[in-house]
């Protein structure tokens, strides 16, 4: 059994022409650091898959302050308008290719984070606050997942 943690980036600056270049606000950095500390104590992620957008990269950097990853990759499959089926297939392929990694952290954006949860665990589509993390148990033998919970910075 593997654990998949799907995280929305921390709070970002307002929309602008270049959405990919938006930075985290100070609150966003705080949210990411808080969730990174929580993850290190509760789930200990050892693999990271992250969107190339600046706010997701900054979130991952803050999380990495308290976590060590055996595997880390940036993929354009996790941008806001990305296709959840493609992202889920790619994640499942990486899980199979890296059996030494037991807990996978995916850092991305709305709406793909919600769609990705639904893709992995049909019928479950939580709305993510900034910095929130959904927890999913994944059986790599059957490729079936079970949505467990969602945890936001205000609740950990």
Automatic annotation (TrEMBL):
Stored CDD domains: HP_PGM_like
Entries under InterPro entries matching the protein: His_Pase_superF_clade-1, His_PPase_superfam, Mito_Ser/Thr_phosphatase, SixA
Keyword tags: Hydrolase
Domain of life of the native organism: Bacteria
Stored PANTHER family: PHOSPHOGLYCERATE MUTASE-RELATED
NCBIfam families xref list: sixA
Name of the protein in question: Phosphohistidine phosphatase
